[in-house]
């Protein structure tokens, strides 16, 4: 028996519940994990609102929040290869088990061992934010010296994209609110404050011929503002807004497999994909952790320390 944060129906923050649940039983291709750290992402509140039904695993209410975690394997389901009881692991809860919990089940093909020297706290940030950054930049495939605009650079994914892009020799320009400036500039971003500056005018002054690539984390009207700043609309990659093809751009192609997680972990060990963790919350404080991400008032990555 363990404790978990979840929701008994779809809705806003008011539907959150803290409840006891029996330890999940790992099914075929799953591992039962004692959660040490869970990452907090915008995807979590979208799931709570019922906006991403394909990722709930078809589980009944109450459902547990969270999509990424690091912890220790307690038991194996059938047909699990490459993992053993006692392994320190990190991965995705793609079958609906959630991660804001003391124990959960992770999808074994989407779970990897934590390499020596990497903390569980850092590992817990890699499945969603870290590997998304890798995927977006790989999809663009820009050479050293190219220019990239990161629209919404201040969050966990945006800072990961910026740091990884800089390590590849790209010239990085990023947009965000005033509160995001310090963290963005610390990783080498030429920052544009959209609350105080004309984003399009400043961006065109910095890169008159247009950007070689744009990675959008903001979506909506903001995406439509910055998309024309790319030289080629096909080099606009959106992480959250699936309407990007209407602008000629592409949605990020995610690779959720173990190999990509292992690659992300190696990059984190090298310091290239080291997350900017700005808040660590206890499990009892999970609603506050999610609220900071949902209202956009946080910069960097937020995690929940469960054990």
From TrEMBL:
GO terms for cellular component: cytosol. The keyword NADP applies. Signal peptide: none annotated. Residues 11-304 form the Enoyl reductase (ER) domain. SUPFAM superfamilies: GroES-like, NAD(P)-binding Rossmann-fold domains. GO terms for molecular function: mRNA 3'-UTR AU-rich region binding; NADPH binding; quinone reductase (NADPH) activity. Keywords: NADP, Oxidoreductase. Pfam families: ADH_N, ADH_zinc_N_2. It comes from the Bacteria. Gene3D superfamilies: Medium-chain alcohol dehydrogenases, catalytic domain, NAD(P)-binding Rossmann-like Domain. This is NADP-dependent oxidoreductase.
């Amino acid at each position: 028996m363990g404790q978990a944060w979840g929701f008994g129906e779809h809705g806003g923050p008011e539907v959150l519940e803290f409840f006891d649940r029996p330890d999940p039983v790992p099914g075929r291709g799953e591992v039962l994990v004692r959660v040490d750290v869970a990452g907090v992402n915008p995807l979590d509140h979208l799931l709570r609102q019922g906006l991403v039904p394909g990722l709930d695993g078809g589980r009944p209410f109450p459902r547990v929040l969270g999509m990424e975690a690091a912890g220790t394997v307690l038991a194996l389901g059938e047909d699990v290869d490459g993992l053993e009881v006692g392994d320190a692991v990190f991965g995705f809860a793609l079958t609906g088990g959630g991660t804001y919990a003391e124990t959960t089940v992770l999808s074994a093909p989407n779970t990897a061992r934590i390499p020596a020297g990497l903390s569980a706290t850092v590992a817990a940030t890699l499945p969603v934010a870290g590997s998304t950054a890798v995927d977006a930049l790989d999809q663009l495939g820009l050479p050293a010296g190219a220019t990239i605009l990161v629209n919404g650079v201040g969050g966990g994914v945006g800072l990961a994209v910026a740091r990884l892009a800089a390590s590849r020799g790209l010239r990085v320009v990023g947009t965000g609110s005033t509160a995001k400036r310090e963290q963005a500039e610390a990783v080498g971003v030429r920052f544009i404050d959209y609350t105080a500056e004309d984003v399009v005018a400043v961006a065109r002054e910095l890169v008159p011929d247009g950007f070689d690539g744009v990675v959008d984390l903001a979506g909506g009207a903001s995406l439509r503002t910055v998309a024309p700043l790319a030289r080629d609309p096909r080099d606009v990659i959106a992480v959250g807004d699936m309407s990007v093809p209407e602008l000629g751009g592409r949605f990020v192609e995610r690779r959720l497999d173990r190999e990509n997680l292992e690659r992300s972990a190696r990059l984190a060990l090298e310091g290239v994909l080291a997350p900017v963790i700005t808040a660590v919350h206890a499990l009892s404080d999970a609603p506050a952790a999610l609220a900071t991400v949902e209202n956009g008032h946080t910069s960097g990555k937020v995690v929940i320390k469960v054990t």
